[in-house]
Design brief:
8 helices, single chain, 74% helix, Arc Repressor Mutant, subunit A
């Protein structure tokens, strides 16, 4: 049996004992998903990379604290979430910008500009949301997390999650439609 054949529970048990091969397998399984969520939380590649690294460092150090009755992916996302909140507290007041170039080689310059503006508008609208609403949207729509898991992750009931999602969608719709009105005035 190779490390790849181990269950998440076995991987974590070995990681807690300092098994580097098991930890490497954990990275292989979850690193891309953690980075994707980190990027969607902060919209900054460098910060997302830092958060991903910090998350797995914390997972390595605290592997013994994970309990098998908790879904491993949710636990890792919780570690990331806590690190993200901590970084926001430290960096209070900083503005965020979309750091990824949305350009495709096949696009005309006009299409590239439209995509970039649209991506920036969506990123700005998302970043303007309260953290809980933003997190709910990202978990459910970008990460594809089930409502039950997202509610557990955010430590809220499913009803509260639905309310967060409703308010977030409304706020996004308002912000984006106001932005279109401004663009049409010029």
């Amino acid at each position: 049996m190779t490390v790849r054949d181990l269950t998440d529970e076995e991987i974590m048990r070995k990681t807690a004992l300092g098994d580097e091969k098991a930890f490497h397998e954990l990275l292989t399984r979850y690193e891309k998903r953690v980075f994707a969520l980190a990027w969607r939380l902060c919209f900054n590649k460098t910060e997302a990379e830092d958060l991903t690294q910090e998350t797995f460092l914390k997972v390595w150090k605290n592997a013994a604290l994970w309990r098998p009755e908790a879904k491993l992916e949710t636990w890792i996302y919780r570690v990331l979430h806590n690190l993200f909140i901590d970084s926001r507290r430290r960096d209070k007041g900083q503005t965020e910008e979309l750091s990824e170039d949305l350009r495709s080689d096949a696009d005309t310059p006009e299409q590239t500009l439209i995509k970039k503006r649209t991506g920036q508008e969506v990123a700005q609208a998302l970043n303007a949301l309260p953290d809980r609403q933003k997190e709910a949207l990202i978990l459910c729509y970008y990460q594809g997390m089930k409502a039950k898991d997202a509610a557990e992750f955010l430590s809220v009931s499913q009803g509260a999650l639905e309310a967060l999602l409703f308010r977030a969608r409304q706020a996004l719709k308002d912000k984006l439609s106001r932005g279109k009105g401004k663009n049409n005035e010029h």
